[in-house]
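fwd from M.: "can u put these together and see what the complex looks like"

so here's what she sent:
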Amino acid sequence: MLTNYKSTKLLSGSYVLVESLLNKGMNIVFGYPGGQAITIYDALYSYKNELSHILVRHEQGAIHAAQGYARVSGKIGVVIVTSGPGIANTITGIADAMIDSTPIVVISGQVSSDLLGTDAFQEIDVIGITQPITKWTYQIRNANEITWAISRAFYIAKTGRPGPVVLDITKNAQTEQIFYNPVDVNSIRSYVPVPKLNKISLQSAADLINLSKKPFALVGQGVILGNAEKELLNFLKYSDIPAATTMLGLSALPSNEPLNVGMLGMHGNIAANLKTNECDVLIAIGMRFDDRVTGNLNTYAKQAKIIHFDIDPSEINKNVKVDIAILGDVKKTLPALIKLLTKALHTNWRNTFKSLLKQEIKAVIKKEIEPQVGPLKMGEVVHKVSEATEGNAVLVTDVGQNQIIGIRYFKYKQTRSLVTSGGLGTMGFGLPAAIGAKFAAPNRTICLFVGDGGFQMTIQELGTIMQSNIDVKIILLNNNCLGMVRQWQKLFFKERYSETNMDNPNFVQIAAAYGIPGKSVSKREELDVTIHEMLERKGPYLLETKLLQETMVYPMIPVGSCITNILLGNEK
Amino acid sequence: MKNKILYTITIFSENTVGLLNQVAIIFTRRGLNIETLSVSTSALKGIHKFTITTFADEEIIENITKQIDKRVDILKTYYNTDKDLIFQEIALYKVSTPNLLILKSTEDIVRKYNIRILDMTEVWTVLEKTGHYDETQALFSELSAQIGVFQFIRSGRIAITKSNIERLSDMLDSNRN
């Protein structure tokens, strides 16, 4: 099949769609066929060699896989689904991609345009449903719009602050015969992806930083999305500024970087949170002051002058009032800032972080990752897998305790090493996201940490792993309960454990039924050898670790509390 | 919420299907009522202009203005308070013609409110008044009290700023880097 050519013969809309995807450099899509997508799938059949299609077991699996692919590769994740229930099943993932700024293009089949609005079989109002959770959504009603819409969708999804785009393509548009002529959309007059840098604000920011005695940087995913990891490190080193990351900002800085003082927020590091309320200048870079990071806004960083770097003007003053906003692409604004800075050293200030880390190691970390006696702990499982992969693996997590313990104790050497559902907190995200991550980084080990609750939300994707033989290491942290909810019930609901216990199946047998080898471990002395068996084996593997129901994640800042109100688990 | 005052949001957009929904859901998320809404073409060809009024505090207005502005097909969004604007509404009143005729002072009321009479039959008369909300409301109250009103309708606010040109041209110019 010829690709990327200007056609002189007529092609159906579906062929034009696939040609347009190839023209955009795509070589993989995730999806699930159905009645109103069948002609697209017929076209995919002709392009098997150029465009791989990963057949999932549920459309939610397709969208999360595309998210995992996009997060690790930095490219756009593409999903193809049918109308009605097909697109409806992707909604959670679209919302997840929106709140976590992940570039996704979802293509959904739709009933023929003459049937729109008639409650036709498998018709839903895709535009109405997806508008609140997409960056752009568009219904293609005739084949002539396909190349334009695909190009515009890719442009919007990837530029500025990335996000999901939905293209709903009617059956008649899929079948109409047209000439394929590639279109390249690279500007839209109503859309300003990167705001202009204000040099006066930048100078004010530089002045503040130059005068600062206790500067502190908060690093978000914006740095990763903007490929500005190097620029960030240059800035931090030049001005000797300690930096903490948000959950999604993890891996923007290597774990062993001395200026990296850990993670912010509800289950973040003690120093990162306490120092937010002690610093004199707070420099937020590509982060959005989520409530899980700030806690009570009335007591958040009131002592500090706040500088906010972001590409999205609507994030400025949304949650936290800032003193200076630097709009623009951090890959450009940070180097521009450095030129205005004087080299600095903040040794004493940086040392104050170290004593807090020692306190956290003693009170929380050591007990969690190196327990000598007693039952297995989540932290030690994560720690051992991280050690065994030497910081080179991609960490994928589900949501809940597995997520928090996973991201707290996994170590990173390179960027784009973490895939997790941050803003939406989508249980069931992990397994399909790990599938997508593997296609984005075929040469890296993909380690998924998942709880028994979330695993069972998308467990059908084991079928996808089986069919496409996807090398994903699944580490199931099984405590036979919804651990994070249980933790809240223990702390704030008088131990009334309402609907958080789970009677679980034999997970190793389930994996075995899909041809996936696995082992269940409950003893400390079996852990190392099983981890090595898992990592040495080519292909997917399920390592189930049996944990006590009573797992608590610390440190913890209760919802709505001041960020200095940190529970360590030793409170009376 | 503190200090809720009436803001007028002016939106310039492309003329594409579904834009009104995109704008409306931003109000819905924040639980804000749209008081009035008017959509029409602007002075610039192919560009539509929304005029929306809502009660809110400034922090919220600033936030939602930016969130509206962020939508791909929105060119520019501004917010203003009444002092920055020349604004107007139009109201139509259908009243009983016999009742209107027995009014002692039809001329007084027409002069006082600067009413136009649009149509008249033996049964009913349609009056038109333009003005601010308070003015059209005052006429409604007076007519209701004296002779009753069969039907009443008031348009959404339309507004222009006190500056010389359509501000969108600034935005379009500034984009040409």
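replying to her w this: Chain A touches chain B through 21 residues (CB under 8 Å).
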